[in-house]
Specification:
Chain lengths: ~450, ~450
């Protein structure tokens, strides 16, 4: 394919934003009234609200409700241009980004490519496990879970049956904890009604965490309480453990123990999604080193925000946590700084406002460390759960999405049911299941 | 894979239903309190409300809202068993159905496999066109339409641009008319806002119909009015025309004229989805000949309902139209007849109640021929549109689905917008697009 410019030169200066996650979208919004041409490049034509991916994966909400088309977000921004493409590399000398569908020149470049699942170099796990970083992952996990039970109906052999009905989640951060909680709710209230022929006492949910407590980065109260809630819900916790290998059937832990599952859910870490073309000195641990203005080290007109940006501060020498809040705040802040830059004004160093963090574990159950006017309030249980719902709901883009998610949540709450247990599209199939002998009809 | 019985023998007699469309679901519901084991076999784990597939394809509603998991429909039916499998063939002597995951014995077999898209043997068209018979088709069409516009942004060459922005729909039945109407609404209200860089005067919507009027089977008033509405909406009608060939780029009509499109939407006909194993005498035009009790000709315990069943009556010597109403009514009726059969009572011949038919063409615009107490009322315009919405809404399974579809419809009605313009999953890519030269930024 002949590589051509994505967009013709205009008389305005051009800001190219790579990635439409929380940071990229916030930045593009902040540039609404600036005298620049804004070009957003993303592989998808929609923004994904990642904190609710686990609910798509566990059939709680429709994928459609947690994503929003970029073109719709920005349809009243006359200076906004979108291209659906993958950013491949950057030539900072010629000020050009190479993409999968052509190249684009920039006056200012903002790298907001976010992070991808980190398999720590284990190719086998990367191939056989399911991650949860985008809508495709979430749908693949949903389809896989449901298909497993459909297949289990034909299986009598105990090891085969366990491999289909058991789930191993790796990573005790918010995603891992939230999936474990959601799966245990489904096991209590939904699956036994859907599959009366299966015995759900056999369904084990394992959560493997390398550290000695869950929700690293949150308070010890949150860690203790989430452990308590998960254990009471029958989730088997493996603390101080790492997964050594996984062949699609057997998970081997570094303690030597083995677990048997066809569904290994990998939520053990993320790494910055770096593109080629940056000086090696600017890169550290797959992230771009930025100064207090989000400017990438050694460049004048290249910036990075969110997960991909490594902004070392006194409180966070290793950079901010790779989560939504720093990305959103850096996006908005950089928008203002770019406006200052265009007006030849002094840039203002980024200041992070920590609002705290939370994780939901099930019906009426969540943990939250909230920072309000500088004070930390720790709360667990119903109150935390209610705050979690409220915060996530108002953060969703679009009134229609909010409404449909509220309906789904209220529906599940009152009926102990979800409506979205559908197998549509791709699913993960490791070694095919051999239907040995049939199960007796209960 | 070793073939094993899907379900162990029970002491109850077993009714195996192949296919969970309108007919199969209605029958399984009707057998709720019968003293039989009901086994439903379907390739998907959900029922699809096919009349709204075109709205999924045109980004009007979420796929999740028009499908419903079988296990959820029947979770209070203790005699109901579901298996997700493809029925391959039947051995009527041994009373066994062979499926993709094993075999199943039956005492009574009901074929409700419905119909598939009929490409009339044209392999090229089958490979390059997009049909609209299931959720995968609908999503593929949605993704393709949106991807086309994303690609069009990079194209300057006129023929290439037209091929991406023009759409050719084959078939002037309800599906063809409804897609044409929905696309023209998107062209007027939605796409120009999403893609300000494209000139939508260039977007042509062609509807090719072999007969001399649209909506064959409906009244001439309905045909005339739908033609008028579509023409006023700028849809180009090709009546008395057939598509001769399509290479993924050029559509050649039997009149010799050619149209240029990368998206040929095939809604020109359906054919029964027959499985192997029936006596040739029982088969006519890919359908199973049935008597007035839906019993397949020459068999005692094999029945067929819906699209696959050819029930010749005085009014309909060629069988009922392959639409929802006959399927639903035959499903319910056969349920009662099977109950009679089990009680050694006399079977009652099927009686069809024609409620009429309708098609919607756009905002406030539809045509309807309603049959009420034996009288036909023909109505077009707003009233027909309102009735269309009401009837389709109450027919959807599940309160949650109804609610979410209502919200989507009201949302679109008041905002002239839809929220679901997402490219998620598979799309049809015929010959790759060569990005020749870029378009100027408007």
């Amino acid at each position: 394919m002949v590589k051509t410019p994505l967009i013709d030169k205009s008389d305005k200066r051009r800001v190219v934003i790579l990635g439409g996650g929380f940071g990229g979208v916030e930045l593009a919004k902040a540039l609404h009234h600036s005298d620049v041409q804004v070009v957003l490049i993303d592989r998808q034509n929609f923004h994904t609200f990642q904190p609710l991916l686990y609910q798509v994966a566990t059939a709680g909400v429709e994928p459609q409700s947690i994503v929003y088309p970029f073109r719709k977000i920005f349809d009243d921004h006359p200076n906004f241009y979108f291209r659906m493409a993958e950013a491949l590399s950057v030539d900072t000398t010629r000020q050009i980004v190479e993409t999968s569908i052509g190249y684009v020149n920039y006056d200012f470049l903002v790298v907001a490519t976010g992070a991808s699942t980190n398999f720590y170099g284990n190719a086998e796990i990367q191939q056989k496990a399911i991650a949860l970083k985008n809508i495709d992952d979430a749908l693949s996990l949903r389809n896989t879970i449901l298909s497993n039970f459909e297949k289990a109906l034909q299986i009598k052999d105990d090891a085969q049956l366990n491999s289909l009905m058991d789930f191993v989640i790796v990573g005790g951060g918010p995603t891992g904890v939230e999936i474990a909680g959601a799966l245990s709710e489904l096991r209590s209230h939904v699956f036994p009604k859907d599959y009366p022929e299966l015995n759900f006492v056999k369904m084990d949910i394992h959560l493997v965490q390398s550290g000695d407590h869950l929700l690293k980065g949150m308070s010890l109260e949150a860690a203790r309480r989430s452990k308590e809630i998960l254990e009471r819900a029958g989730v088997k916790l493996w603390l101080n453990c790492r997964v050594k290998s996984y062949d699609g059937f057997t998970v081997t832990l570094d303690t030597g123990e083995t677990l048997c599952t066809r569904t290994l859910i990998w939520a053990a870490g993320v790494a910055g999604t770096l593109i080629d073309g940056f000086r090696p000195e600017a890169v550290k641990q797959n992230r771009l080193k930025v100064d207090a203005f989000n400017r990438v080290e050694g460049y004048d007109n290249v910036f990075a925000i969110g997960d991909i940006a490594l902004m070392s501060t006194t409180e966070n020498p290793e950079g901010f946590a790779m989560m939504a809040q720093p990305a959103i705040q850096q996006g908005g802040w950089l928008g203002k700084n770019l406006a200052r830059l265009l007006n030849n004004e002094q840039l203002v160093p980024f200041k992070y406002h920590d609002h705290g963090s939370m994780a939901t574990i099930g019906r009426n159950k969540a943990v939250a460390d909230l920072v309000i006017f500088g004070n930390t309030y720790k709360t667990q249980g119903f109150k935390a759960w209610f705050i979690w719902m409220f915060v996530h709901l108002i953060s969703l883009i679009g009134f229609r999405n909010k409404l449909i998610v509220v309906i789904n949540w209220m529906w599940s709450y009152f009926t102990y049911d979800t409506g979205i247990r559908l197998i549509i599209g791709r699913r993960k199939e490791n070694t095919p299941v051999e239907a040995t002998t049939t199960k007796a009809v209960v």
